Amino acid sequence: MQQPTEFYQCLLDMIRRAERRIFLSSLYIGSEETELIDALQTSLRAKPWLQARLVLDLNRSTRPGSSSTARLLLPLLKEFPERLHVSLFRSPKLKGLMAKVVPPRFNEGWGTWHPKIYGADDDVLLSGANLNTSYFTDRQDRYLHFSGHAPLAQYCLGFLQTSSRFSYRLLPAGPSADDYSLYWHDSRIHPHNIEKKADLELSTYQAMCRLGSTAGLGNFNKMGDFTGRRDVLIFPIIQAGQFGVREEERALSMLFHHMSEHHNSDSSGNNQYDGPLMDLTSGYFGLYKDYRDLVLRSDLRTRIIAASPKANGFYGSKGVSGRIPEGYTLLEQRFMGAVRRAGREWKHNDTDWAALRGPGVQLSEWEREGWTYHAKGIWLRPSPAADPYMTLFGSTNLNSRSANLDTELSFMMVTSSPELRRQLRGEVDALRAHAHPWRGQDRRVTLGTKALVAMVGGML
């Protein structure tokens, strides 16, 4: 699926059809999502055996006011205290005096819970989209639906259960109280000092999955045996830099190394470029330094889509956050400067494959009237004219924030299926249909924004 409306209808349908379990992970649930809450309530009422688990970000879900995610879920928690389990993750990066003085609106800058998992029974919908109206209507993202894949569903549920062990539990304050409470279950560890515990829990979970010893997951000697198909492999990747879990960095380093070796070994001496083509996109484009270096040092032809300033989710915001789109323009300018210095600038027409002579990097920006852009991921083809055979998808924006501050879950999928490869090509083509050449070199970045990026650039 390619449209936000399709994503929303699929999500509602999964919740309404659920028979055994519902498991959802998002940054937050928007205050206007009464239809989504009603769907959860209806399913839980109709099926007394149905269990539901949610993992959300604590800071984003408990913002001051009467319309927070926590308050939105309160009636369900009261009605289904034994069957609805809501965990709220709090990043330990913000602690001590800073935790007391940073205003609630800005505390998310020190890290969030970012995985986007939407599952029911053995169906899983993986995306980068949150549970808010804009993501259901006019905020472009990616959406991959896996139907009837019990091992993948069990992995995702197990990941959420594991993460709940170093998160707060959201509970009603009391039977008659119109408020919620946050319960911390581990008296041995302060909730601001969970780094070692989180590292141990996540690393152990991944290791057990790889060894095939996690209860209910079956044999995962090949960590990609999620789909039950011989022509599709899926590998889960956890990135939680604040805990020292950096699987995404290792995976991308291995990917670039493999592609570089493969390309060099297949070189025919022909001047016409016929090597691999990588498509990369991020709605908040500011490549993490290690990833930037991989792109610049490789010999892969690389096409990148970033959000235009108007398509940035912070465009038009009041206060300091209104400077964020301009901040990304500055990061893009710096990136393209590095591309030129490395001699990697794309110099030919995007579709004129016959004119290509060697590798290059092209930056485009996505813009659609009235829409914002939130898609992220990577697609890889063996040659420019071929269909993609690999994609990276999930929650990561591939920037410094994703690498070091947020907790991310992404997946790498490799396929030899002609039909699935055509669908991946269609996904890229649909995104590129609203992309045009990057114009950031002509935009002026104010001194105030430059100072802001110097102070908080790692949070972008």
Automatic annotation (TrEMBL):
Subcellular localization(s) per the UniProt record: Mitochondrion
Coiled-coil intervals, chain numbering: none
Gene Ontology MF terms in the entry: ATP binding; CDP-diacylglycerol-glycerol-3-phosphate 3-phosphatidyltransferase activity
GO cellular component, one term: mitochondrion
GO biological process assignments: cardiolipin biosynthetic process
Enzyme class at the top of the EC tree: transferase
Reactions mediated catalytically: a CDP-1,2-diacyl-sn-glycerol + sn-glycerol 3-phosphate = a 1,2-diacyl-sn-glycero-3-phospho-(1'-sn-glycero-3'-phosphate) + CMP + H(+)
Keyword ATP-binding tagged: yes
EC number: 2.7.8.5
Pathway named in the protein's UniProt entry: Phospholipid metabolism; phosphatidylglycerol biosynthesis; phosphatidylglycerol from CDP-diacylglycerol: step 1/2
Described function: Functions in the biosynthesis of the anionic phospholipids phosphatidylglycerol and cardiolipin.
Record protein name field: CDP-diacylglycerol--glycerol-3-phosphate 3-phosphatidyltransferase
